[in-house]
Amino acid sequence: MDGAVEFPLDLAELSFRAAGDALVRRSVLPSGVRILSEHVPGSRSLTIGYWVAVGSRDELPGHFGSTHFLEHLLFKGTPTRSALDIAIAFDSVGGEHNAMTAKEYTCYYAKVQDRDLAMAVDVLTDMVTSSLLDPDEFETERGVILEELAMADDDPADVANERFFEAVLGEHPLGRAIGGSPEAIRSASRAAVWEHFQANYRPQDLVITVAGAVDHDVLVAQVTRSLAQAGWDPETLATPVERRTGGAAQITQGEALSIALRPLEQVNMLIGMPGLVATDDRRVTASVLNSIFGGGMSSRLFQEVREKRGLAYSVYSFAPGYSDAGLFGMYAGCTPAKAGQVAELMLSELHRLARHGVTPEEMRRASGQLSGASALALEDSDTRMSRLGRSEITLGEFVDLDESLRRLALVTPDDVQALAADYLTGPISVSAVGALPADAFSGILPSGVRP
Fold it and tell me: Is 71 a known active-site residue?
């Protein structure tokens, strides 16, 4: 494989060899269903995912919380399987099955032995195409989801994270909580969730990815058969849904300071600003910057905040990217009386990086960390399956380990320094949960900004 491999939506068949002699194949059925596989030599198991490119950001007024509801309800039964039948199908073969709702996609997945692929295809197809959304189960899951949200609300780090996205991204749909608010879940109707299901779970929306011990031709035959049995005629013509395009959105800051006062022993706080979209050419540079700045025990944040000064146990940075927006953030948990000092120290470290750059030794360590972590992650079929899904849904191209390392080697210290300076041109937002002094962040925020 030489360079990235593009995934055109109008190309019916594609096949190539990736790093490690993995065979990647992609088929687009006439109905618009996309099937991707990565055969990994020596594997005896596989991970399979059924993806739809709809997440919490795609919910319309009146449908807030529908994505999270569906993640729960699709496990609750079809005309041919009860919720218990679905659970038994995987438990009886030692498999794992679950789902994840994200801001821009939802995935239902399973990990099984290679001999159990047909079962996994049949069950997941049945769930995604034919869920009953039973009214009684709907009310039961309403209670379950509310308990899940209550559990998250008891975690100050979760609360600070949700408030951080709202503070940085403002009214942009990506700023909304993935799980929905308790108010939205309480007011959600089965009719609204059913409308959301019908509008977004169609053949042209479906992406199926498998990694591990998989034969692509067998996989396509099994998927085609199971879709036909579910009433999704594979020969009905449809074009796959377009990927999200349009570049970076105009982001208007939600608020500079978001505080939740709680009588806790620690303050959980996040500081940051808008970052890069998922398809930005500087995403590799962002990974290097994050590694040097706050991505490990040798990073600047860890060394300055924890090792040298003992101000926090947990401190790190992160840089998520989405189709039209991104963030760069710094997290720390510390004693309330030290919150202002830690916040100023974290931000001053970013300014120092932007002014003075990074050292050759830091670049060497970052390259080693990122290349090693990437290689180790690919030992897991879950990671490979997810890489296929993100490649198809978000990026429109496949980047294997060799290409990732080639791109990593092109990043220069000047690139990292320039990106840090670019981050600092954006408005700074702070979210925090804990027993904070009123002036805790006066040293890093504009005058007049108060809790």
Answer: yes
